[in-house]
Sequence to fold (231 residues):
Amino acid sequence: MKHIDNLDSRLKTIALMVRSETRLADVGCDHGYLITSLACDGIITGGVACDINKGPLDNAIAEVAKSGLNDKISCRLGSGLEPIQENEVDDIAIAGMGGELIASIIENSGWKSFEGKHLILQPMSRAPYLRRWLLQNGFSIEKEKACSSAGHDYTVISAVFIGENKDIDEYDPYVYIGELFKDSSDEAERYLKRTLSELEKQRKGASFGNAEREKALTQLIEKIAPVIERR
Ligand SMILES: C[S@@+](CC[C@H](N)C(=O)[O-])C[C@H]1O[C@@H](n2cnc3c(N)ncnc32)[C@H](O)[C@@H]1O
Fold:
């Protein structure tokens, strides 16, 4: 049995998007299960685990040591990508945080370029914000896969840098469904239906005094509802 098979479905979905033979940055690693499982299975050659808080990082340090991976995984305290040099890693996982925080971590990396890197991002909230930010900031979304954890459904986004900033409107349907329309799983169906019902709620809220937003949301819902139904 592989080590990644012991991860919960959310972390395993993330693990399966990491490319083989790469060096991984696990940003906000907490317990360090993701990076250690991938290294134990020989999927990654090593990498860097980092966390902004000492308690979680200490857990990761213990996990790395217990797994005999001290020579392959470096554990560092710090915010976002700041503790990592861009030539040290190939794939970057940022999981279990809000979509806005994930975007700000990429934005504030201080790195010159993300060319050749693969980002595996799992927002706990505000996925539309993150999708739009990625497209506006030179990234393309390659793939998305829905997953479920503790009764909640989430999306895992795999993105690459293409260097082309897209001018994408906040009411563009892609901002809300991304690449998930290609995922035929029950998790994706639930996730997309919840996205639709959240938009319905926002439309209702806008109907009390914000006619312009209500109209934009109505048009958006009319565009994405059939796409979700057709899946
Ligand atoms: C909910 S846990 C997720 C852990 C793991 N990535 C996962 O998906 O299971 C979030 C972790 O991110 C860390 N964190 C929050 N903000 C951060 C930042 N700006 N830079 C690095 N780590 C951060 C927290 O300390 C915490 O350990």
In short: Residues 11, 27-30, 51-53, 56, 79-80, 95-97, 105 surround S-adenosylmethionine (CB under 6 Å).
